[in-house]
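Worked example 4.2. Below are the chains of a multi-component assembly; read each line carefully before continuing.
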Amino acid sequence: MTDLFVVPLLQIVVVLNAVLVAVTYMVLLERKIIAWVQSRLGPMRVGPHGILQPIADALKLLLKEDITPIRADRWIFTLAPIISLVPALIAFAVIPFGGEATLFGHRVPLYIANVNVGLLYIVSITSIGVYGIILAGYSSNSKYPLLASLRASAQLISYEVAVTLMLVSVIVTTRTLSLVGIVEGQMRQHIWYVFIQPVAAVVLFIGGLAETNRTPFDLAEAEQELTGGFHTEYSGMRFAMFFLAEYANMIVVSAVMTTLFFGGWLSPFPNVAAAHFLWYIPGWIWFLLKTFVLLYVFIWIRATLPRYRYDQLMRLGWKVLIPVALVNLVVSAIVRVFL
Amino acid sequence: MLRAYVPIFLFILVAIGFAVVTLLISRLVHAEKPNAVKLEPYECGIEPETDARDRYSVRYYLVAMLFVIFDVETIFMFPWAVILDRLALFGLIEMALFLFILVVGYFYAWKKGALEWA
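Applying the procedure described above to all two chains together yields the following structure tokens:
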């Protein structure tokens, strides 16, 4: 009973809170980094160097008026942010933050669930989130959000096939769908899978950018063309939930990339004697560090690249990424069987 | 076996609960001063004359249909990839045939211009 309900529930509460805090501070970090890239200071007023800004933002969004436009479908309009947010949060259920830790004399796994279909679970759960965007655009009954939801569906059908195809070749290498198993496989083989599947890592990262609606693929909220994109009509807490969902998705993508390609919670250089002191740093710190580096790349890309047009994204997905994924799959399968 | 999924179901419940409770709390504390203009859909200051949901041409509908086919076919490869070691050469040849048919269809669609914007 304790093992089945109480321990997972505690883990869920910890993870949920960590994610929410991480998300609010991601927003600050993003504003700061983009500001530095553009030789600005970023938020400076609330707290020293603006470190209390996220708290002020959260309070503001909670207290703001939450408008439902008169022509909108009230129920779907409220449901859409929930559909966006919930998948972004529950994807964390299978992400291994570390191996096992000893806490108050109990051995506690640092993951909520270790299911043998972990990767499939991530793929299916993260693609539910796009329904939130499409429904938000449709239920607003306003022209800009409607265009944005059209674009969101165009975006989904361009990257999804390439990403799932690429995952197949990753699975050929990992031989398991369990995320814990994938990290343990990297421990056994003494190699990060990014060195075995470099092409897959690049394509999956591009897919991750498209999945999370980040620049250069933020077509569904292209503010210069569509005002606010799919959330033009949203305000207050419902708007905040879209925001939470976007940043939580970024963390999910980075965490999954870390697990698949960068050895998850493993410390680097296990064979080098001089780097032996790295072993004393706990695994979950390594995991968070690697995830943070990938999140930084997300922000860096946003500060650097211009936006794609959505027929260009479609061409990229169907005429470049899918052939690359197919070739990669054939090569990895042949290598796996013959070598 | 199913026990491994209990934490996931718990998480789903907690996440939905979190979303609903946050919305309810904000409903209790947020400001509320609606007026007719505020409740109009946003259209850069112009009053909207018609419903936004007009008929429109979805120019990528062919790609959307292809997507359904290809996505189902890739999911079909997941179990194959996991046990490729045990299937060995047999699995490789079988999947090569399957992929060949898939690729022929893909290039047919490409050459027919299904991936272009109509």
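Take a moment to check your reading of the output against the notes. Chain B is about 65% helix and 0% strand. The mean pLDDT of chain B is 83.
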